[in-house]
Design a protein that fits this description.
CATH topology of the largest domain in chain A: UDP N-Acetylglucosamine Acyltransferase, domain 1
Oligomer: homodimer
Number of domains of chain A: 2
Largest interface: A-B, 33 and 33 residues
Largest sheet of chain A: 12 strands, mixed
Number of strands of chain A: 49
CATH architecture of the largest domain in chain A: 3 Solenoid
């Protein structure tokens, strides 16, 4: 174990040096999340298909987690129960556009994690960093449990629990718990806990700040302790179900999954759950007594319980949906928490967009109309007014508006357009529009995955460290 | 699947070219053993400990099987349910003796399998080839189900079903089904089915030939068909039990295994089986309602059912023991088949040696006295006389003797000495003599193994081929 402990110390020191301007010690937040006795008890797996470029290269790391569907290298890092998904990396021959400049990719993009410590983190999608289009790099950085790193290269940065860096290159930044950023690029900033911030240069700016007392109910972090609150309670209650799927090499195929759909064998599926055509259920998703309509997807770490999703729904990484009825083409963003009442499900009308990191935790019945944008915190009907706007009204905004704790500036129509474009893109990538021949996406391409399981040294000085592994076609 | 089929064709052609002098086509014997639909359905695993040098290198191969506890490389080969065990390879710094010449190893020995097709074969131990002490090489060769390759480098050679090449370097040879050779080195020979042949230059020569009609009951091979007979029936009846242990990633530790013993998590253990101190049970061993006394070992592919082994027993690769009582320090050689009567177990007295490839399949009760050598085929008491000799009487032989179908020439005492020395060596290597501090062997060193599971491309042209993998410390 000594080498692994030295490695962890070294990574923490590197991150702290990078964050020296912000006077922050990441160690006390990270160490409780990686208890010694667990570090060597969880295996890593990587997936192999015939569809995705293959290159895995691992050295001097603890790798417990999953790596798949794209090129990846990990050096001098600790990745604990972390999923690295490369199925949307740029490919050789793709072209890349940045402010009118077109660049052709002369090699496949690779995810590179170096000198970093990621705990229960999801890394997905391609880099938007125009300076290094071939490498989606995470270096000298750390992420706490249930953080999302989505197309967001970072160096010298720290993500708190349930934080999301989405299409934002971070240099020496701290993104506190449950904060969400989609900002293009950011230098040496500290984003406060529960801040939701989306900005596109000269076009729009969306900000919402969760009230401190609300946030504390759902997620609290103290140095030297594991994250606490309702999010963690919710996850801990369902943890046991994952053991079965991770402990078995070959699981029998699930009955009732259409040929055009994929349900990961590392997802938890509890009766009676039904799957429509073109549906996609990623690993570490949890589905219980729910219906996924045609083209709906359930991404990594999301939970869908006692709910009906009518079709073409996006449930982004880490979103939780309990006791709900979601109309066609609704979008539920990263790490949102939607909890209806058992006898009065939360209703969300078709085409509505639930912003990333939204909490709708009902004390009284609520119904969100069709084609609305929803954000923030809603516990009953009186909150809806201050936490939503119709997409039509949003499109009319041309300068600035404040609704409840949300501030919007810029072109509402561009914001709606960008969001709807992105939702369409996600559905397309996931194979929701597959017609039996064309428009294949992840649901169709990810059906035949072979999973390889790799384990660390079981004892001695190197306990918990994985051997050096190189895998190529 | 096309690439894998091409690879198989290419290997078969290479072997046939090597065997051209013997006018032999190995294809019809091998193809039925590797059905298309199964080639991509079985995974490979390799073990990692802190005790053994690590280096795995795989390219352009189907690898379904196990690789562990030593350096190994596989190139352009098909290894189907084959186990490669490197825990007795020579290590850097070891010295190697050959007819009075001493050579120091300047690197660890590696097992290298190239352009070969091995089906359900066991490869174990170190090479005795003085020309290439650093490489235990198997090249342009094939082996049929349940063959053993034991410290026996080979090129351009073919092993039939249940054949064993033991400490014999083979060049362009055919070893037919259930034949056993221990000859040092052999060029361009064909060893007949059921021939048991041990020779040490200028010292001794032991030969036994199974009667054709007896052999046909136990093992028959026809071109275009799977091997048939009682051996295959016996194995097929018990096949299902292995599925459970291979389908689970983490199995709970077995209760009642002493701290000084190892029981592979890839062995089948059926109640009520008991394990003494320093016992070793290898993967793919099968134990049912039996007792392994202190220091006893059960090697790969062996079956021990309704039997008591009193201690320090060696049950070599592929041996089967049913309804038997074995005294202390008895040895049962490779692929032997010992089958007592349910109400009158086969008794073998202490210190007795059951030669490799012996069949004792009782119709009437039989008891072998202590300190005897047993060979050939025994079905009742009247066969014992023609298929055994006391070690004492054997030691007195100085020239030549014929007993039943067995011919012995040379120094009986040297033969007994060599055998007993080897048994002691096996027990020592396996940790039978561990005293709580010193004399550690496989039973103690193999306790903490991490198993890594690797799988082939699941679809497309490369279906069944494994990616190129390189693993180093």
């Amino acid at each position: 174990m000594q080498k692994l402990q030295k490695l962890i110390d070294r990574i923490i020191r590197r991150i702290n040096i990078n964050l020296r301007g912000l006077e922050f010690d990441c160690g006390p937040y990270l160490r409780p999340c990686i208890p010694d006795r667990k570090l060597s008890s969880f295996y890593a797996f990587y997936g192999i298909t015939g569809h995705h470029p293959l290159r895995f290269s691992f050295s001097h790391s603890n790798l417990a987690g999953s790596y798949f569907l794209g090129k990846c290298r990990v050096d001098g890092s600790v990745l604990y129960k972390t999923d690295i998904r490369g199925d949307e990396l740029k490919l050789k021959g793709d072209s890349f556009h940045y402010r009118g400049i077109k660049m052709a990719m002369d090699q496949d993009e690779i995810i590179s994690v170096a000198d970093s410590l990621l705990v229960k983190t999801l890394v997905h999608n391609k880099s938007h960093d125009p300076e290094n289009p071939e490498v989606f790099q995470i270096k000298n950085s750390a992420a706490c449990p249930f953080a999302n790193i989505h197309g967001a290269p970072m160096e010298g940065s720290f993500l708190g629990a349930f934080a999301t860096a989405d299409l934002t290159t971070l240099h020496g930044c701290i993104v506190e718990p449950f904060a969400y950023v989609q900002l293009g690029e950011l230098w040496h900033e500290r984003i406060e806990a529960g801040q939701i911030w989306i900005n596109q240069d000269y076009t729009f700016d969306f900000r919402y700040q969760f009230p401190e007392e609300v946030l504390a109910q759902y997620i609290r972090t103290e140095p030297g302790q594991l994250p606490q609150g309702r999010f963690m309670d919710f996850l801990n209650e369902r943890k046991g179900h994952f053991r079965r799927v991770f402990d078995t090499v070959h699981l029998d195929p699930l009955p009732g999954v259409p040929k055009s759909a994929s349900v990961s064998r590392y997802a938890v599926i509890i009766p009676k759950t039904r799957f429509g055509e073109n549906t996609l259920v990623a690993q570490r998703a949890y589905l219980e007594n729910s219906v996924l309509g045609k083209g709906a997807n359930a991404q990594e770490n999301c939970f869908i319980i006692n709910s009906i999703l009518e079709g073409d729904n996006v449930t982004a990484h880490g979103a939780k949906i309990v006791n709900a009825r979601l109309g066609r083409k609704t979008f539920v963003g990263f790490n949102s928490f939607l909890n209806g009442l058992p006898d009065a499900p939360l209703v969300i009308g078709k085409g509505s967009i639930v912003m990333p990191h939204t909490i709708i935790d009902l004390e009284e019945p609520v119904s969100i109309p069709a084609d609305h944008l929803v954000w923030g915190y809603i516990s009953g009907p009186r909150d809806v007014e201050h936490n939503s706007i119709s997409l039509k009204a949003l499109c009319d905004i041309k300068r600035m508006v404040t609704i409840g704790r949300m501030e919007f500036a810029g072109w509402g129509s561009k914001f709606v357009e960008a969001f709807q474009h992105r939702i369409d893109h996600i559905l397309e990538e996931n194979g929701a529009y597959f017609d039996g021949r064309k428009k294949k996406g992840h649901a169709q391409k990810g059906q035949n995955i072979a999973y390889n399981i790799i384990q660390p040294y079981p004892m001695g000085m190197q306990k918990g460290i994985y051997p050096t592994i190189e895998i190529q076609p």
